[in-house]
Design brief:
alpha+beta; Pdz3 Domain; six-stranded antiparallel barrel; six-stranded antiparallel beta barrel
């Protein structure tokens, strides 16, 4: 075999070529790892080029390399890796005119979290996260920012839906679960952007079920999940997940004397979210069932010593009018005759307005309910087909 001695400048050029080839191979491998998942070809890539497995650490080390991790730690890490792509950061700006220059400028209004609902670009968050804002920006887990518009909101449930233009590489929607399967003591995971620190994970348990909180619109939100997972300002609108990575609630409020987490957080249940969000996407608002009446305030009813909800006025042609219900009247001498007093809906007792609201909130327009009411000293029942409220 004949040896050929290269000149120094040729050896340098060869080393440069080798290094350039190595860099190109690395870039090719990384590019394949990014592009092929879009077409569902990851398994094909691994089968054809098993030697590219060493590129995996670029996207997160395999848990197999960390044998010291406990099973619960592995579960938490896997859920975060899978679900964090669905969590977004939302910023809210307000347009104001300067008092001195009269120039229009954007002023930061607030920020919060949210999660991707579907691949069409719908993002779910709390209403109070977007309240008072004029322009909104959604930052995805990959750091890309997108202008967003409001599709609809339900102030009584503190739920809002934004919409962005789906990016080319697609979106990762959250996986909805079912709160009816929840048990006190179950592990939960909260992901959000507390104090603007994006992609923050905290863990805890379901502390209690069936709680009730007040919405921004001062209406009761029922079946709320209480958790001790740390929830701080900026977490609002973020997902609360179970140990399978399924959405079980949306982090909404905390009980605290300092404004920071005190181990008592509340999440709107996913059953409410699954009922409200499709309506907001389709109609821009929620459809509510009602009787078609105006009511006397609870304060006046209590002052008059009445237990139940007093009907003030029955709207002509309404569901209540069809059922023969009567409102409050006043004669020429200004003497007041109380209208019918609602004391129950189906099996539920009604003592104050919140009781009636919660009884009808679970119903849909067209549903038939049995209304119990008191007229004078007599108790009556009437079948009422609920109407759609404007």
């Amino acid at each position: 075999m004949t040896l050929v001695r290269r000149k120094p400048h040729e050896r340098t050029r060869s080393r440069l070529v080798d290094r350039a080839s190595l860099v190109l191979a690395l870039l090719l491998g990384v590019s394949l790892r990014v592009v092929l998942p879009v077409f569902g070809l990851v398994s094909t890539l691994d089968g054809l080029f098993p030697q590219l497995g060493w590129i995996q650490p670029v996207f997160g080390q395999s848990l197999d390399e960390h044998s010291y991790l406990l099973e619960d730690e592995r579960n938490t890490i896997e859920i975060f890796r899978e679900a964090s792509a669905s969590v977004v950061f939302i910023t809210n700006t307000q347009i104001r005119r300067s008092m001195f220059s009269r120039n229009v400028m954007e002023v930061p209004r607030g920020s919060g979290s949210g999660f991707v609902w579907d691949r069409k670009g719908h993002v779910v968050t709390n209403f109070h996260v977007i309240e008072g804002g004029d322009e909104f920006t959604v930052t995805l887990s990959d750091g890309s920012t997108h202008d967003a518009k409001v599709v609809g909101a339900d102030i009584t449930k503190d739920i809002a839906v934004l919409e962005i233009e789906p990016p080319r590489n697609g979106l990762t929607p959250v996986k909805p679960g079912d709160t009816r399967e929840l048990l006190v003591g179950q592990k939960v995971i909260a992901i959000g952007n507390p104090f603007g620190l994006d992609q923050t994970l905290t863990t805890g348990v379901v502390s209690a079920l069936g709680r009730e909180i007040r919405s921004v619109g001062n209406r009761p939100i029922t079946d709320v999940i209480q958790t001790d997972a740390s929830i701080n300002p900026g977490n609002s609108g973020g997902p609360l997940l179970d140990s399978s990575g399924r959405l079980i609630g949306m982090n909404t409020a905390i009980y605290s004397t300092s404004g920071s987490s005190a181990g008592i957080g509340f999440a709107v249940p996913v059953t409410t979210i699954k009922r409200v969000v499709p309506q907001l996407i389709e109609f821009g608002r929620t459809e509510r069932a009602g009787l078609g009446v105006t009511l006397v305030s609870d304060d006046l009813a209590q002052r008059w010593g009445v237990s139940g909800v007093i009907i003030n006025e029955v709207q002509p042609g309404s569901a209540a009018a069809d059922a023969g219900l009567r409102g409050t009247t006043q004669n020429s001498r200004r003497e007041i005759s109380l209208g019918d007093v609602i004391v129950g809906v189906d099996e539920l007792e009604v003592a104050v307005y919140d009781d009636l609201y919660k009884a009808l909130d679970r119903r849909n327009p067209g549903d038939l309910v049995t209304l119990r009411y008191r007229r004078g000293d007599h108790l009556h029942e009437a079948k009422v087909q609920l109407q759609r409220l404007p």
